[in-house]
Amino acid sequence: MYYYLILILQGFCIYHAIKNRNNYYWIFLIFFLPAIGAIIYLVTQVYNKNDADKIQKEITSILVPTKKVKDLEKQLAFSETYQNRVNLADAYLEMKDYNNAIPHYEIAIKDKSQKGLHETKQLVKAYYGLQDYKQVINYAESIKAEPEFENSKAQFIYGLALEEEGHIELAEATLRKIDLRYSNYEERLILAQFLIKHNKREEAKDILNEILTESQNMTKPNRKLYRTTIQEVQKLIQTF
Which residue, among 57, 87, 56, 82, has the nearest Cα to 71 in the 3D structure? Predict the structure, then answer.
């Protein structure tokens, strides 16, 4: 048990060092002196009282999805059902492991006994993660007529992919569909950035002002949830 705890601690410290672009000698120290090196790294580079919750969340974000994937891989190996395959693909997507998620979704949507809407929307997200915008557009357009596609995350990503492929007017029309009051704050910020990029600053300013006004009426949990987005809105509006 002690050995596994050291491996987990060592893995977290190396992950943290790479993520935060710390000097590479830390990785060698952690690797060659697993327990002592990891403790030194935590004390000098990571830990303070304010960061305790953050550390716990980061360790959980590494370990929980990995264990979940391993369990779902075993379930699929034991029983190759449609739902087991989709569950595994969803877990891969959650980890941003797009290359492993995509084949499972593509196998799943070949099952004509299933509608495949969820899986297609997930493929839109996965291919966007790989910056394969043509595939994003292909899959999005295959479900455009579905009511569930309207105002969905997949529709928003479709709009972003259209911009990447140079279809600016269609991209704007698509992205504007998420401009709904008291919702979609991050997406509306991106829409405002899109409008600024394409010389529609006044329209962008209107969206940013709306978000700021709405933020004043947010509940405390929502203010915490969207804090980073609101801060970005405040910074952007100061440029006008």
Answer: 87
125 with 106: CB under 8 angstroms? no
Return d(Cα 172, Cα 193) in angstroms, integer: 11
Write out the E strands in the chain: none
Instruction: Give the closest residue to 139 by CA, choosing from 96, 97, 173, 106.
Output: 106
* Model confidence pLDDT, tens digit, residues 177-209: 999 888 899 999 999 999 999 999 999 999 999
The most confident of the ranges 33-42, 105-114, 159-168, 216-225 is 159-168
Rounded (10°) CA dihedral 87, 91, 96, 97 = -80
pTM for the full predicted model: 0.72
Tell me which residue of 27, 126, 8 sits closest to 67, measured CA to CA: 8
Neighbour count for residue 30 (Cβ, 10 Å):
25
- Amino acid residing at 118: H
Tokens 């953050």 locate to: 54
How many CA atoms does the CB half-sphere of 80 hold within 13 Å?
Answer: 5
pLDDT digits 0-9 by tens, 46-75: 655 445 455 555 555 555 567 788 888 889
Q: Could you give the CA distance from residue 162 to residue 147 in angstroms, rounded to a whole number?
A: 20
Tally Cβ neighbours within 10 Å of residue 64.
11
Q: How many beta carbons lie within 10 A of that of residue 226, not counting itself?
A: 19
Q: Is the pLDDT of residue 5 over 90?
A: no
